[in-house]
Structure formats: C-alpha cells, structure tokens
Amino acid sequence: MILERQNYIDFKKIAKDFKDEIGRPVEPAISEMEALNELFVLAQSGANEIGTKLENLDSEF
Description:
Blueprint: H1 11-17, H2 30-60
Keywords: Kinase, Transferase
Protein name: Putative GTP-pyrophosphokinase
GO molecular function, one term: kinase activity
C-alpha cells in the first residue's frame, strides 16, 4: 500500500488549543466547532481520494 490511511488531524493538539494559559478547558464557540468539523471532513475526504488514486495507479503497474 502506498499511502497508509490514518487520521491527519491531531486531536490532542486541538484539545490543548481549547485550554486557557492555566490549563483550564475553554468552551469553544459552536461556529468554531462547525468550521473545524468541515475542515476535518474535507481533509479526510481528500486524503482518502488521493489514497484510492495511488492504489489504483499502483495496481496498474
């Protein structure tokens, strides 16, 4: 397999970003979470599409 499929978003980093400087959790705005979700879906779809195309090319050769 050319491209190993995996999650490309680091959820631990995202969780860290939603904490204040003392380390207490901060509730993100709904609009921020919606935008994050849209970006996650787009990134996963793109990675899966590229992986599929690379697998198809690999099988041809």
